[in-house]
Q: What sequence folds into this?
């Protein structure tokens, strides 16, 4: 599928020239999927939401949640040494950056193709097609900033309470149930 500049401009909005040049490779070489996007790599999930790639965002979140859950389980069960788990966490973070950065343009191109096809089948005249592309494309700044705030709230909360010493310094008897003495020493004294 080849797209003209007006269609890309209507769908992308700002930075249409960048995406037009990147997408031309995909149009010229079917099967070509890699085109590194530094904004996608740097901002990851936020870039996906900003560019309205909600399905891809959902898949990455599911994979990320499974990765975190598995890593936490392995750590809690002491199935691997902590340094191996730490190395995996670093490697996984790098993989997320590389995969989203390398495939972001391709994912965005596929969404453009679907929306452009829907525009052509839904509307006969060119003006309505371009309006449709503009409505379905573009960016979602509000969703991107909302996701930043939603994801930062727990981080700020943990950092705040960690700075106050709430999470550290507890001494519990791990061999039995929580005792009244432990509650008094570790919780009530800190209130």
A:
């Amino acid at each position: 599928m080849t797209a003209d500049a007006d269609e890309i401009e209507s769908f992308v909005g700002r930075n249409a020239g960048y995406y037009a040049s990147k997408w031309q490779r995909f149009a010229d070489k079917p099967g070509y999927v890699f085109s590194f996007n530094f904004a996608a790599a740097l901002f990851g999930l936020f870039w996906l939401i900003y560019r309205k790639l909600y399905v891809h965002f959902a898949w990455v979140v599911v994979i990320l949640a499974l990765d975190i859950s598995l890593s936490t389980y392995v750590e809690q069960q002491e199935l691997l040494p902590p340094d191996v788990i730490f190395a995996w966490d670093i490697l996984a973070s790098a993989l997320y950056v590389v995969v989203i950065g390398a495939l972001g343009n391709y994912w965005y191109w596929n969404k453009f193709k679907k929306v452009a096809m829907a525009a052509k089948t839904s509307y006969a005249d060119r003006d309505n097609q371009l309006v449709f592309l503009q409505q379905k494309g573009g960016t979602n700044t509000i969703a991107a900033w909302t996701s930043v705030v939603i994801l930062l709230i727990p981080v700020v909360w943990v950092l705040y309470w960690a700075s106050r010493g709430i999470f550290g310094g507890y001494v519990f008897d791990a061999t039995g149930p929580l005792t009244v003495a432990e509650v008094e020493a570790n919780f009530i004294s800190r209130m």
User: Anything to note?
Assistant: The mean pLDDT is 85.
